[in-house]
Amino acid sequence: MTSDATTEHQPVALITGTGRRFGFELAKALLAEGYLVLAHYNSSRDGVAELEESGALGFQADLTDQQAIEKLISEVRQSTQRLDLLVNNASCFFDNERVNADPQALAAVFQVHVQAPYQLINGLSELLAANGNGAVINITDIYTDSPSTDYIAYCAAKAGLANLTQSFAKQLAPQVRVNGIQPGPILFLPEHDSEHRDKVLAETPLQVEGGLEPMIQAVRFLRDNPFVTGEFIKVDGGRALRI
C-alpha cells in the first residue's frame, strides 16, 4: 500500500473493529460519503471483505499485541498522507468471571481499550494534524461514570479511555479534536435472551433498542462541529439516568 491510495482532497478515516456491528455500519456510511476508509479487523474478515469491495482498505492487527499496533501505524502512514478521522471502536466485553479465570483476558481488556487507542492516537497524531482539522472519536461506555460490578475490569478500562480522551484533547489542540461517545442499549448481542432485553429496555427511559444510526449521527456531529473537544455524548436512550 502506498501514499497514492487516496487523492489529495479525499477525506480518510481509520476505524478499528470494522468486521461487524457498529464499526461495519459506520465504515459503510463513510464510504457512501466519499471517504477512503481504512478498515481495521482482527480475526473476522466477513464484513471487511464487503467493505473492500466498496473501496475500503483492510488492515489486520491484533490490538492486544503492541508490535502489531506499531505495524498497523506504519501501514497507515504508508497508505495515506492525511487522516481526517480516527474512530477507536474495537472492544472486548469480558465479565468478572472471564477475566478472573484468564489473565490474558484481563490484560486484553486494558490493551484493547487503553493501550491500543493510546498508541494509535499518539502514532498517527501528525497525520491527524496534517489538514488542521483532524478528529478522534473514542467509543467508551455509559458505565464509565457508573461502573457495573459484573464488569469491573471492562468498566475500569473504558474509564481509562475516557481519561485518555480528555488528555489528548488538551495535548493535540488546536489541530486535532478528541471526543468520545458513550453508547447504551444500541444493539443487543445474539446471546441476549428476551428476559435480558426486556429488563434492559424497562430500565431505559426511551424503552427502545437504539439501533446503529443514532451512533453514526453522533459521529457526524463530533466530526463536523469545529468547537467541541474533550467531550462525551451519551447515546443510550437515557439509560445512564438509571444505572
Give an overview in words.
By secondary structure, this protein is α/β, with parallel strands linked by helices. It has a single domain, classed as Rossmann fold (3-Layer(aba) Sandwich). The protein contains eight helices and seven strands. A seven-stranded parallel beta sheet has the order 3-2-1-4-5-6-7, sandwiched between helices. It starts with 11 loop residues before the first strand and ends in an 8-residue tail after the last strand. GO terms for molecular function: dihydrofolate reductase activity. Catalyzes the reduction of dihydromonapterin to tetrahydromonapterin. Also has lower activity with dihydrofolate. It is an enzyme of class 1 (oxidoreductase). Its EC number is 1.5.1.3, 1.5.1.50.
Number of domains: 1
Report the average pLDDT across residues: 94
Q: Distance between termini?
A: 46 Å
Q: What are the segments in which pLDDT stays under 50 over at least 5 consecutive residues?
A: none
Strand order within the widest beta sheet: 3-2-1-4-5-6-7
Give me the CATH superfamily.
NAD(P)-binding Rossmann-like Domain
Please bin the fraction of helical residues. Answer: 40-55%
* CATH architectural name: 3-Layer(aba) Sandwich
List how many beta strands DSSP finds.
7
- Largest beta-sheet details: 7 strands, parallel
* H/E element sequence: EHEHEHEHHEHEHHE
Q: Report the total helices.
A: 8
Strand residues, percent: 5-15%
Shape: globular
In terms of structural class, how would the helical and strand content be classed? alpha/beta
The CATH C-level name is Alpha Beta
